[in-house]
Specification:
about 270 residues; mainly alpha; flat
């Protein structure tokens, strides 16, 4: 049943992505707008059902394995879009969010789905809290990344004086810059809490707050990067195009920490 729900989710997100891209590139098509949102909503319901069934199949909430982490990341990313769409009606954000969620799910589909048996460490609640906070931070940084791309597109259209349908669909530069800033703050807060809880748990279980695991090193590097970004925005007025580029660069690091480290190194750190 979990596989069936997962496949239906992929189909819905795929159709929604096509509709969103059509809405992005075509004129203001109300039918495409409604269809893309409908597919996203239906896909999200099946996505939620797939995660719940997955939880009952393995007997516990799993976010510490790469397959489950990427599935949760995609789910949370779509949830954020639906909340933003409901609150602010920034429909075009779905043209950027849903393709990323679809890519994440397709990538998860090729990964092993067996979670194995919980060991004594994974059974501890702090592991789930630490990993979930880190994933929520990655979702916020993903939103900052996507909004940064939207900012650069809008800035380019404005600079070239191409006031076309795409220009009218995109929010203003000030709104995009503000969304970028808020997403980075939220992501930094989640990541900070995740690191603190992870360090506390590592000290309790392994007797050391820092084990020099590759994921820990890259997570700290990302934390320092966004700390510099926030410091620059607050004290030196880093905004606009520079902030957009930094959000893009930062998310590349997040992706590497999220997936690349797990594929290149195997340590005691989740994901497993």
């Amino acid at each position: 049943m979990n596989v069936l729900f997962f496949k239906i989710t992929l189909i819905c997100y795929f159709l929604g992505t096509l509709a969103f891209l059509g809405y992005l590139l075509a004129g203001k098509k109300a039918m495409l707008s409604r269809f893309s949102l409908a597919m996203t909503g239906v896909g999200f319901l099946f996505h939620t059902a797939a995660l719940l069934v997955r939880m009952f199949e393995v007997g516990y909430v799993s976010v510490t394995h790469l397959f489950d982490a990427m599935a949760f990341f995609a789910w949370a990313l779509v949830l954020v879009f639906l909340l933003v769409e409901y609150r602010f009606r920034i429909h075009i954000l779905g043209s950027f969010v849903l393709p990323l969620a679809l890519i994440s799910l397709i990538s998860a589909a090729v990964l092993p789905k067996e979670s194995g048996t919980q060991d004594a460490v994974i059974q501890r609640a702090w592991v789930y809290i630490h990993t979930t906070l880190a994933l929520l931070g990655a979702v916020a940084f993903a939103i900052a990344f996507l909004v940064g791309i939207m900012y650069l597109i809008q800035e380019r259209l404005l600079k070239s004086k191409r006031f076309n349908d795409l220009y009218n669909k995109l929010p203003s530069l000030d709104i995009l810059d503000d969304l970028n800033y808020k997403a980075v703050i939220l992501g930094f807060a989640f990541l900070t809490l995740g690191i603190i809880i992870g360090a506390w748990g590592a000290g309790y279980v392994w007797g050391s707050y820092l084990t020099w695991d590759p994921r820990e090193i890259f997570s700290l590097t990302i934390w320092l990067f966004y700390l510099v970004v926030l410091h620059g925005r607050i004290t030196m007025g880093w905004r606009a195009k520079r902030a957009a580029y930094l959000a893009i660069i930062g998310f590349v690091g997040v992706i590497f920490s999220f997936i690349g480290v797990d594929l290149l190194w195997r340590g005691q750190h989740a994901f497993m």
